[in-house]
Design goal:
Blueprint lengths: L2 H17 L6 H12 L7 H5 L1 H22 L4 H30 L5 H21 L13 H11 L9 H11 L4 H26 L9 H29 L2 H19 L3
């Protein structure tokens, strides 16, 4: 792996970690960055595998809390309910993700203009929801009602369209269902663990025949950079959205999506 490839892998890993848990679409940013940098990976496996770095970052930050939940589950109904709540929210992604995997990876992932448009539209939605979201009724991300979790799970599936944002979809859904800004972000964290781990495992399985052994080094570089940057974001995000809300991310999406669409239209 030459220095140029190493630099690109590190940059993409940094982008993944910085954007995975904020509502701006890490996949959209990665695919657009890869397009403009001329970076290609077999089956888009690099883009999926380096998400494991973000998963590990979240596990690192929340290890104590998650360990306590699973330790208490045999005797604590609230802990069991939280685990079931996350699994219920995860279920729609399993079914729809498996059924639509090939279409998503071979069609939607290959359309940069769609990604740019969805970034802009998602930014507009985020700004709109920031204004009209109902008064929060749920302040604890570990105690969402099961029906609410299931609806959030279906809304998360919109993020299978690159540029929508998994965290953005779940956060918007949670806000509209009465979650506080902090609880919406934290539930998105918890839901990302089975969702991203499942996507990683299934994508590796589906692309096992086209995996490039020579790409292991660049994947390792990207994964490490994603881990480090994601740790910083996870530690910072809850406090930020509690103070400033989600409007800054909406404006970011609109600006990045508009710039990308213009650049693509000019064949850059």
């Amino acid at each position: 792996m030459d220095a140029h490839t190493t630099l690109i892998a590190a940059l993409l890993g940094l982008i993944e970690g910085l954007t995975e848990f904020i509502p701006v679409s890490s996949t959209g940013h990665l695919l657009l960055a890869g397009h403009f940098l001329g970076f290609e990976s077999a089956g888009k496996t690099f883009e999926v595998v380096i998400q494991l770095g973000a998963v590990l970052a979240l596990l690192t930050v929340y290890f104590g809390k998650l360990w306590q939940v699973f330790r208490d589950a045999p005797r604590d109904p609230a802990a069991r309910r939280f685990i079931v709540s996350v699994l219920v929210a995860f279920l729609p992604a399993v079914v729809i993700g498996v059924l639509a995997h090939d279409f998503i990876k071979t069609v939607l992932f290959e359309t940069p203009r769609l990604i740019a448009v969805m970034l802009v539209l998602g930014g507009i939605v985020l700004l709109f929801v920031e204004r009209i979201a109902p008064q929060p009724r749920h302040d604890d991300a570990t105690a969402f009602p099961l029906r609410m979790s299931l609806i959030i799970g279906f809304i998360q599936c919109l993020a299978m369209i690159p540029g929508v944002s998994r965290s953005g979809a779940t956060i918007v859904g949670a806000l509209m269902l009465g979650a506080s800004k902090r609880a919406a972000a934290e539930f998105s964290f918890f839901l990302s663990l089975p969702t991203m781990a499942g996507a990683f495992a299934y994508d590796i399985y589906k692309n096992r025949d086209v995996l490039d052994v020579g790409a292991v080094n660049e994947i390792a570089v990207g994964l490490i950079c994603a881990f480090i940057s994601a740790v910083l974001v996870v530690r910072w995000l809850l406090g930020f959205v509690s103070r400033h809300g989600y409007a800054p991310f909406g404006w970011w999406r609109i600006i990045i999506g508009s710039i990308a669409f213009v650049a693509l239209s000019l064949n850059f």
